[in-house]
Amino acid sequence: MLIKEFRIILPMTADEYQVAQLWSVAKSSKENTGGGEGILVLNNEPFENKRDLFKNHTSGQYTHKIYKLESRVPWWVRKMAPKGSLELHEEAWNAYPYCKTVVNNPDYMKENFFIKIESLHVDDNGQLDNPFDLPKDLLKKREVVYIDIVNDKIPSGDYDEKEDPTKFLSKKTGRGQLKKDWKTTTKPIMCAYKLVTVEFKWFGLQGKVEKFIQNTEKRLFTKFHRQLFCWIDEWYGLTMADIRQIENEVQKELQDVRN
User: Fold this and answer.
1) What is the pLDDT of residues 148-164, one digit of tens each?
2) For residue range 25-47, what is the model confidence (pLDDT) as tens digits?
3) With contact defined as beta carbons under 8 Å apart, do 100 and 93 qualify?
4) How large is the greatest C-alpha to C-alpha distance in the chain, in angstroms?
5) Residue 232 or residue 256, greater confidence
6) ω into residue 74 within 30 of 0, thus cis?
7) Spacing of C-alpha 203 from chain mean position
8) At what angle do helices 206-230 and 14-31 cross, to 10 degrees?
9) Residue 193 burial by CB count (10 A; 0-12/13-18/19+): exposed, middle or buried?
10) Are 1 and 197 in contact (CB under 8 A)?
C-alpha cells in the first residue's frame, strides 16, 4: 500500500472550487468518450445519512461510473487481457467540502486492487498538519506532495498555451498571468488536499504498479487543475443548479454516444 497526500494550491475560494471541479469533470467526461467507449454514468443522485465518510460529512451527491479502457490500450493488450480486466468502476460520494472516490476492478482484480482518493477543500495555503485525522501508523506512511500549477514542470504532451496559468488572463475575474511568487501574492487562495491510497496486490509487481499509479495521479492532478483554473470564464458565476443540469445533459449525451 502506498499513501500520498497531494496539496494543490489554487487562486480561488473553496466555494468557487465546488462549481469549478464539477463543471470541469463534466467537460472532461464529455471529451473523453467516443466510439461507444469511454465513460458510462450509472448513477448520479443525492445521498443522505452515510456515516462512514469523514466527521460530520454525511450527505451529498453519489455517482457511479464505469471507465471502458479497451480503446485506450494497444491491440495486443486487448487480445491478451482477461475478460473484465479493462473496466474500472468509480464510486464517489461528494459531501463537499469533503469528497471520497474509490476506483476498483471488481470483475478481475476484485479486492486486490483499489485507488481511494479522499479530498478536503479549505480556504488556506496548504499548511494543515493532518487534515484527514490519520492515525499514527498511517501518518508514518503518508508522503506529502505539493503541486504548484505555475512552477511545476509538466510533460510537453500535456502543455497547452491556452491552459497556461502564466499566460491566461480571466476576463470575468481579472485573475491570471500568475508569477513565480503567486502563492504569496495572490488572493483569494485555497487548497485541495487529496489523500491518495493505492493498493495493487500482485506478486512481483505491487511496488512498481503502486508507484506508477501515484505518479500518474500527480500528473493528472497537475494537468486537471491547470485546466480548471484556465477554464474559469466558462464556469465562473454558475450555480449548483446549473451544474446538476449540465451533468444530466452530459450523462444523456454519453448514453446517446454509446447507443
Assistant:
1) 999 999 999 999 999 99
2) 888 876 665 544 567 888 889 99
3) yes
4) 53
5) 232
6) no
7) 28
8) 110
9) buried
10) yes
Q: Give SS3 for 156.
A: helix
Give the separation between CA 172 and CA 178, rounded to whole angstroms.
16
Cα separation, 53 vs 113, whole angstroms:
20
* Model-wide pTM > 0.85: yes
Residue matched to cell numbers 511545476 = 152
CA-CA distance, 149 to 167, in Å (whole number)?
A: 12
Cβ atoms < 10 Å from Cβ of 232 = 22
Alpha helices for the chain (secondary structure H): 14-31, 75-80, 136-141, 182-185, 206-230, 232-235, 240-258
Q: Which three cell numbers stand for residue 94?
A: 461528494
Interstrand relation of 2-10 and 39-47 (parallel, antiparallel or unpaired): unpaired
The phi, psi pair for 172, rounded to 5°, reads -80, -35
Q: What is the amino acid identity at position 43? A: N
Per DSSP bridges, beta strands 190-200 and 113-122 are antiparallel
CB 3 within 8 A of CB 143: yes
Helix (H, G, I), strand (E, B) or coil at 257: helix
Q: Which residue has the cell 463543471?
A: 23
70: left (phi over 0), alpha (psi -120 to 50) or beta: alpha
User: Could you give the count of Cα atoms lying within 13 Å of 145 in the half-sphere of its Cβ?
Assistant: 20
